[in-house]
Design brief:
Elements (H helix, E strand, L loop, with lengths): L11 H10 L1 E4 L1 H5 L6 H13 L4 E2 L2 H41 L3 H4 L5 H26 L7 H9 L11 H16 L19 E4 L2 E4 L3 H17 L4 E4 L8 E5 L3 E6 L1 H11 L4 E4 L1 H12 L5 H14 L5 H19 L4 E5 L5 E5 L2 E11 L5 H19 L4 E8 L2 H12 L8 E9 L2 E11 L2 E6 L1
Parallel strand pairs: 1-2, 1-5, 5-8, 11-12, 12-13
Antiparallel strand pairs: 3-4, 6-7, 9-10, 10-11, 13-14, 14-15
């Protein structure tokens, strides 16, 4: 019980009723994550969906976002595998090259370095072959998409209607602007959002949509469907978007998610008469299915769903964001080259920019999803790795760039870099951020003796 609607916490009885009679609405990310799971976990998740098939539903905008982003998810998975394989294939030569400078082969004959290098090469080759096989079975954008076929089967007749006119969308956009100004959920934390191609708006079937209002479109379509078809039945929204514009989050020894934002619960009850509204992350959905629906989903599948959600949701972790940030940075770097310059990808540092045969500058990328105490250790580790490279070269600078998930973190990182010391005036410390999949450069600090000179773009 609570004094006001929306603030009550769900009870076991509420959740049991949800699983007996409620409907489950899936967010776009839940569908796209099916491509990111390994086969056993994907099979379990699809079986879970099959178990509640008659009570599944997706808004029209979820279907639209899924179709617009499906191929890029497939492509990015293959690209990530290819990138790892390329890095691994060059590892033996990089190790050999780095050891040659200390003359280890001639001065220390008792060290069997050649034997080690041969073993390393063999391991590298075996791993690269495994990655090549994995790439083959991952699927490509031109191949038959079995995941899509299953999604089409599951949601046949269970997709919401599209907006009837541009006027309806414009009305929602105006409402979104007002809601965002007062931080009313959902979606206000996406105020600067662009789509995957960097566009703030896109069109489909003659209608134009604003990328930043995607969550609001989904939310309003859920309310409309609930009001017209569900007759007060419980609703559960499954999403791996864990931001505070969907979730009620409080600080209690760290952030704790209590459930849906009270404003959302109150709104859907008031406008649609919904008796109970709840939110699950994908892993919590699977765990609850075991508890309330008698499913037998393996713990490994639940763990994988949790890990994939953490990696894919708004780039909340370094593992997924590391891939996105480096690809975005590489694209930005290529676009900033002069006609005479070319780019080479390396191990340490990440990129060399060359004019003819001469290296003119280098870049090392550090992905930052949040600025915490670990950033100091990460910088120190990177400085140490770059020290040999700096000793072997003399005539160009290395730009160590913190690539952040958003402009606020990038600004904080830029200020942090201003106040630290670093070991060489050939190191330039920079900060920027990624929006969509586009890198945006914020600025750099240049050390002259012990004084940092700042330049913000």
């Amino acid at each position: 019980m609570a004094l006001l609607t929306g603030f009550e916490q769900p009870s076991k009885k509420d959740l049991a009723h949800l699983w007996q009679e409620g409907f489950f609405v899936l967010d776009t990310s839940v569908l796209l994550n099916l491509y990111r799971y390994r086969e056993p976990a994907r099979r379990d998740v699809l079986l879970a969906m099959e178990k509640v098939k008659e009570r599944l539903w997706i808004p029209f905008h979820v279907a639209l976002e899924y179709e617009r982003n499906r191929l890029s998810v497939i492509s990015s998975k293959r690209s990530a595998i290819r990138k790892v394989r390329e890095k691994m294939s060059s590892l033996p030569e990089l190790v050999k090259s780095s050891l040659s400078g200390v003359d280890v082969f001639r001065r220390h004959s008792h060290i069997e370095m050649q034997k080690f290098l041969e073993s390393l090469t063999k391991l590298s080759d075996e791993f690269c072959n495994e990655l090549s096989e994995l790439e083959k079975i991952t699927g490509d954008v031109h191949e038959r998409d079995f995941v899509r076929e299953k999604i089409v089967e599951l949601f046949a007749g269970r997709i919401g209607s599209s907006p009837s006119s541009q006027a309806d969308i414009i009305s929602l956009d105006k409402e979104g602007s007002a809601r965002f100004s007062r931080e009313q959920p959902p979606g206000y934390l996406d105020a600067s959002k662009e789509d995957k191609k960097g566009a703030q708006a896109f069109s489909y079937a003659g209608l134009e949509y604003q990328s930043k209002y995607g969550d609001l479109y989904i939310w309003k379509q859920i309310i409309s469907w609930a009001a017209s078809e569900l007759k007060k039945a419980p609703i559960c929204f499954v999403t791996d978007d864990v931001k505070a514009d969907w979730w009620w989050i409080i600080e209690s020894g760290g952030p704790k998610r209590l459930g849906a934002r009270p404003e959302l619960i109150e709104e859907i009850r008031r406008e649609a008469g919904t008796s109970f509204f709840h939110i699950y992350t994908p892993d919590a959905f699977l765990e609850a299915m075991n508890e309330f629906a008698g499913a037998s989903i393996k713990p490994e599948s639940v763990s994988e769903a949790r890990d994939v959600s953490r990696r894919s949701s708004v780039r909340h972790t370094n593992q997924s964001f590391g891939i996105i940030s480096e690809l975005a940075f590489a694209t930005w770097l290529r676009e900033s080259l002069t006609p005479q310059e070319t780019i080479e990808e390396e191990f340490i540092p990440d990129f060399l920019v060359k004019s003819g045969e001469r290296t003119v500058r280098a870049y090392e990328v550090i992905s930052v999803s949040r600025l915490d105490e670990s950033i100091h250790q990460r910088l120190e580790s990177r400085f140490s790795l770059l020290s040999d490279f700096l000793e072997e070269t003399t005539d160009f600078d290395v730009r160590v760039t913190l690539v952040c998930t958003n402009i606020e973190t990038a600004r904080a990182a830029f200020e942090y870099l201003r106040d630290i010391t670093w070991p060489s005036n050939r190191l330039i410390l920079c900060a920027g951020y990624v929006e969509g999949e586009t890198y945006k450069h914020l600025g750099c600090h240049v050390r002259e003796d012990l004084n940092a000179q700042s330049c913000m773009s």
